[in-house]
What we know:
The protein is of the alpha/beta class. It has one domain (5-131): SCP2 sterol-binding domain (Nonspecific Lipid-transfer Protein, Chain A, 2-Layer Sandwich). The chain has helices at residues 10-22, 24-29, 82-89, 95-100, 110-115, 117-127, and strands at residues 5-6, 34-42, 53-60, 63-69, 76-81, 105-107, 132-133. It is globular, with a radius of gyration of 14 Å. The model has no long low-confidence stretch (mean pLDDT 96).
Amino acid sequence: MANRLKLASDEYLAEFEKRINADKQYAELGKTVDDSYTLVLQADPDKGISETTTVGFVIKGGKLSEMWKGERETSFILSAPYGVWVDILLGRIGANRAFITRKLKIVGNMPRLLKTAKATDRLVEVLRTVPTEFNGKYVDQSFG
């Protein structure tokens, strides 16, 4: 457990950036992507998640070029309760499925986002390789 990184921590984000930029499959799938993203992991106090966490990143030509914590104007905003993000990372639900079932809310140009669905799926696959420690009631579902 010592090698797990807390979801959305600075160390987690740095490891994600390293892994996504080293992934040849993502580079190919994301080569036409030139967008910025905000991910909002909403608080769920009843499940031990007391604060909302917001992170963002820029993808240009299949590479993650910038990452930050906090809010900025971006091409897309994806928001969901913390537990939905856990389910996505554990493979219980795909990001596209979470959107269709309204568990994941998205603000932005939908046709443009849907064109990059395969790149998004690969991005999530790469995230699943990062040893992750969850917070609150989800801690026992940590992996890696």
